[in-house]
Amino acid sequence: MEHSKHFTEEALPTAIESHTGHGISLFWRTFFFLALLLLGSSIAWLQTFRSLESEPRALQSAQQLTSLVNLSRAALRYSDSIARLALIKTLADEEQVNISAREAKDSYVLFSKNELGERISEALITRLGSNTIVAKSVNGETGFWVGFDIDGDKYWLLTDQSRVGPSHSSTWIIWLITAAALSLTGAAFIARLINKPLKELSFAASRMRDGDFDASRLDEHVATSEIREVNIGFNRMAEQLSKVEQDRVIMLAGISHDLRTPLARLRLETEMSVSDEEARAHMAADITQLDAIIDKFLDYARLDPVQLSPISLNAVIEAAVYGVKEYDDLRISVKITQDIDVLADEIELLRVISNLVENARRYGKTPETGVAMVEIVATARDKWVQIKLRDHGMGVSSETLPKLTRPFFRGDAARTSATGAGLGLAIVERTIQRMGGMFVLANTATGGLVAHIKLPRG
């Protein structure tokens, strides 16, 4: 049996799955890289801004706290005991500043919460003296504590941490989320803008591949000059290919008519004028072979879009087997455990199965018996149906495998006596591809060749 791809049977499932699977699209790849770039830039900008404004904010906070401590120290120093109590109460009620005596047994944790806190602590110690203590908790009570002296007496000044700056403010988070959202939106818009003309080009190319030249026309008036030039060039190419296709159809129709008419006359003259029965039979067989070769040429050259519809795979295989069940040199076993529908053209799929069976009968005979043992197995999986057609013949050399679906190619010595046009498997491969499937053939580990067909499930 001939082959369309160079795979071993064990590697076929992986190859087929990877063929039908979808990698990451250009849109998502472009979106990912743009989003990564914009988010990275936003974070870098945010860190740069915070670093640049950290020093001025530390100096401002230190100046305010120094003024607060100096004012509190001066007020306490020049007030009597009764006025001092009233002053401490007023500071606590109106300014949220608590002043208390500092005991030797007090335990505290120094304020070094972050880079900003360290800068504020250094600035306060520089302004208030080396005996100044800046702590974030005293005796387990958290806050912003400043320890200072008044004529040998030691005090704690407790104030709210908001005076130091919004170290836990949600403003930064809100702005970061806003910047991220705007960046992602912009990345999606840019990626879509880049991807849209390529997606349209891909769709037009797929329609042109299927022979629909009218649906493959692209807009020649887009704003982007590069895309406009590509679209114009593609449209001109589609027009030329459409003209070539029309000329080809006319030429094939002419060839078919011009060749079949003399062949029909030859057949008639042979039947009437040749007296030797054996010679007449050989001449009639040659004429039949020429007629079949013309059919193969026309089948291979046909590019008309196929009409896909859900059809019964069981019925198609049964019809293909029924047509060859009387052959003495062919034995077929079919293993399909359920009724399976595929999305295909019924006539084209029947032609494919029949072609593969005939190919196995010709080239896949078992050497010992001279009979072709063919197995047909079909299984449905997810949205796909896999069909396997295997013989137990001699197989094909690894050097020949990649070439066997080339039109008119003839392989090893086993094929030298073939009377076909060398288009059988080329037609099979093209037909399966036109129906949105995949066709792969390979040597089996135990001898013989196996054909794999993968079609959408009906």
Automatic annotation (TrEMBL):
Enzyme Commission code(s) on record: 2.7.13.3
Catalytic activity reported: ATP + protein L-histidine = ADP + protein N-phospho-L-histidine
SUPFAM superfamilies membership: ATPase domain of HSP90 chaperone/DNA topoisomerase II/histidine kinase (SSF55874), Homodimeric domain of signal transducing histidine kinase (SSF47384)
Transmembrane segments: 26-46, 172-194
InterPro entries recorded: 2C_sensor_his_kinase (IPR050980), HAMP_dom (IPR003660), HATPase_C_sf (IPR036890), HATPase_dom (IPR003594), His_kinase_dom (IPR005467), HisK_dim/P_dom (IPR003661), HisK_dim/P_sf (IPR036097), RisS_PPD (IPR032408)
Membrane topology qualifier: Multi-pass membrane protein
Subcellular location as annotated: Cell inner membrane
Gene3D superfamilies tied to this protein: 1.10.287.130, Histidine kinase-like ATPase, C-terminal domain, Sensor histidine kinase RisS, periplasmic domain
Keyword Transit peptide attached: no
GO molecular function, one term: ATP binding
Protein name (record): histidine kinase
Organism: Polaromonas vacuolata
